[in-house]
Design a protein that fits this description.
This protein has five domains: 31 residues; 110 residues, Elongation Factor Tu (Ef-tu), domain 3; 52 residues, no CATH class; 62 residues, Helix Hairpins; 68 residues, conserved putative lor/sdh protein from methanococcus maripaludis s2 fold (Beta Barrel). Helices cover 26% and strands 36% of the residues. The chain is built from five helices and 22 strands. The strands form five sheets. Strands 3-12-15-14-13-16 form a six-stranded antiparallel beta barrel. Strands 2-21-17-18 form a four-stranded antiparallel sheet, with no helix packed on it. Strands 4-11-9-6 form a four-stranded antiparallel sheet, with no helix packed on it. A hairpin with a 2-residue loop joins β13 and β14.
């Protein structure tokens, strides 16, 4: 057999083999795998079912601790300072009636002695005139003149003694020195500033409240203030970072200033702290000038719905899911918000579901899937379809 014939036989064999293989494949694979519509998977979201509750609101504010009573010390008489208490330094603590500064009293003692001698002299003259008047030797006008001279001498004695008392600088309360502005040997005259002190029995914090805050806090009215100048208002928790740690103190609202600030449009409530320097206690001291955050106990509100603040869209919209799993954008009535939650009293009902997952561009009526629906996830659906197709192929 020639080479040309061999090539023709080989080519024919190859073609015949291809035809046979193709025929076998058509027979074996001629049954097409069943087609199945792909599951339409909507956006998967987390939902929350709404329910009513009662809650006590807390009003947040802030302010600076100030002394309730602060005094600028000034000299009432002239003289040289001859004595200063070792407690009369910035931060020094003193007691009620304790002498802080002494002005040279020598001249004022002399004035008292002179006034006392003059009173004795006028008293003698007065008694003599009275005796002579009773016997008819003096006119009534002369007796009246002696009586007036005695009264004038007694008044001068009172003034001299009062000036002598003024040589001692004392305060009618327990307190602390804020600033010392004089020293030994300095000559002072009436009106010379000597220092600044304040009482340590109480301290106060002015807390600004907006009109919305006032709707949820029960401030004492002017009629509630007692003769002591305070009322029994809401409890306040003050907090500040002290020595690297957050520290809290208890206070109470004792009054409202009763006016609206014309610039900021806020009302100031005054919280009072007892014994801020803990001179009679063992708690943490609260120094004057400390900036504190305040949380005021507010009123209790019933039948409100609380939702996470992050679920709000804009300022007053929520994304609802109806029974057909359709999205609905709705405006709600928000009565108050805080750092974590928003509180609703209108536009929503208990039992409804809201979306708590962030959606970039929600559309009214769009279909969604919720995590509480018995619908397989995307990956699970794909795996199920692939498994069924594989079985049919086998």
């Amino acid at each position: 057999m020639s080479r040309r014939v061999q090539r023709l036989v080989l080519a024919g064999g190859i073609i015949l083999s291809a035809i046979i293989v193709a025929a076998v494949m058509i027979i074996v694979l001629g049954h097409q795998p069943p087609t199945r519509d792909r599951v339409s998977l909507d956006l998967l979201v987390d939902v929350m079912q709404l329910e009513t509750m009662s809650t006590q609101f807390h009003i947040d504010s802030q302010g600076t601790v100030r002394p309730r009573t602060e005094t600028v010390l000034s000299a009432e008489i002239s003289g040289t300072i001859v004595e200063i208490s070792p407690k009369f330094v910035a931060g020094g603590v003193f007691r009620n009636g304790e002498t802080l500064i002494r002005i040279d009293p020598t001249d004022y003692r002399v004035d008292v002695n002179k006034a006392e001698a003059l009173v004795r002299q006028r008293q003698i003259e007065h008694d003599g005139a009275k005796k002579l008047l009773s016997k008819g030797y003096r006119a009534e006008s002369e007796f009246a003149s002696a009586e007036a001279a005695l009264a004038s001498a007694e008044a001068e004695l009172v003034r001299a003694r009062r000036n002598l008392e003024r040589t001692r600088i004392r305060l009618p309360y327990d307190g602390m020195v804020r600033a010392k502005e004089t020293d030994l040997g300095q000559f002072v005259s009436p009106g010379t500033r000597l220092g600044v002190v304040f009482a340590t029995e109480f301290a106060e914090v002015r807390l600004p409240l907006t009109d919305q805050d006032l709707a949820f806090v029960d401030l004492p009215d002017a009629a509630d203030i007692t003769e002591g100048g305070e009322a029994d208002g809401p409890v306040v928790t003050l907090s500040a970072v002290q020595h690297g740690r957050l520290t809290e103190w208890s206070a109470r609202i004792v009054r409202s200033e009763g006016i609206v600030d014309e610039k900021s449009r806020v009302t100031f409530a005054v919280a009072r702290i007892k014994d801020p320097y803990q001179l009679h206690g063992d708690d943490k001291p609260l120094p004057i000038g400390t900036f504190v955050a305040a949380r005021i106990e507010g009123t209790t509100v019933r039948n409100v719905i609380r939702v996470p603040r992050t679920s709000l869209r804009g300022s007053n919209q929520l994304l609802f899911v109806n029974s057909d799993n359709k999205l609905e954008i709705r405006v709600v009535d928000i009565v108050r918000t805080d750092a974590d939650f928003a509180y609703i009293q209108g536009g929503a009902s208990p039992g409804e579901r809201i979306i708590v997952t962030a959606i970039e561009a929600p559309i009214n009526g769009m279909s969604v899937r919720t995590t509480d629906d018995p619908v397989p996830r995307d990956g699970d659906a794909d795996e199920q379809i692939a498994s069924e197709v594989g079985e049919e192929l086998r």
